[in-house]
Amino acid sequence: MPKLDRWIIASREVDILDKDTDHALRDMGALTAGGWNIVHQHVLVTYENKEKIERYMASRGYNVRPASDTSFFHPDHYVQGHEMETEAAELNLQLKEEQYAMLDSFRKLHSDFPEGLLSDDIVDTVCDNAEKIAKFWFEDVYQNETTTEYREMQADILLETVTKSLTLFGQWMRSHDTNAQVAEFYTQVGRDRRQAGLELHEVLSAVTLLRKQIFVFAATQGLQQHSLDIYKVLEFNRRLVIYFDKALYHITKGYGC
Question: Which residue among 43, 96, 184, 255 has the highest number of C-beta atoms inside a 10 angstrom radius?
Answer without folding.
Answer: 255
